[in-house]
Amino acid sequence: MGSALESAWQYLTDNFSEFQLASFGSFILHESVFFLSGVPYLLMETWGLTKYKIQPKMNTPAAQEKCILKLLLYHVCVNLPLMVVSYPAFKYMGFTSKLPLPSCVHHEYATPFGLTSEYAHPAEILFLGFATICGPAITGPHLLTLWLWMSVRVLETVEAHCGYDFPWSLSRLLPIYGGADFHDYHHRLLYTKSGNYASTFTYMDWLFGTDKGYKKLKALKNGSQNCDEIADDKLH
Prior knowledge:
Blueprint: H1 2-15, H2 18-46, H3 61-85, H4 87-92, H5 122-139, H6 143-160, H7 179-188, H8 203-208, H9 212-235
């Protein structure tokens, strides 16, 4: 496996410059991971799959199309230029794409419906994009490390905005991980002091008390479910 990956990597570095890989290669990887991970949730909503859906409301095809078109525009006009202009900073900090590939120890510092996760104002996309690459830029990573970090971040934000709470969702395994169910509350009360600002780890919402509304809603839902179960037991 290692030799196959190194051979593939050698092919990339032999046929493309480091600048091309770091900028345009990173952009292609981002778009691939983002849309391939987000489209399944879009299709589930299009097909009307309501099981495990957090909110019963479905987005219209027109709303979905508007989201996709604006995402493509913002990605090309904001994300791509950011990747291009950030290359000198990465290079200054020791960034490289050469073999050998980094070992797993080298990665210790790495940190709605799915496609809406990056549906935002261009200024917000620019700010969040800068925040995402700032950490890796400081460490001067290998290009593969940067690509792995970017892929994990994209998968995380798509999952947090997917609109579905599955039995296998990571939030059910890690108590401090927010995930879709936690962050969906933030979008549900849009343009209000909704709380639940975290999409990954929830401790800051707990610390500042911005998750109280969510906890009350969960308590009400759990109470309602318990009442329904009691009523069903009496009927049987």
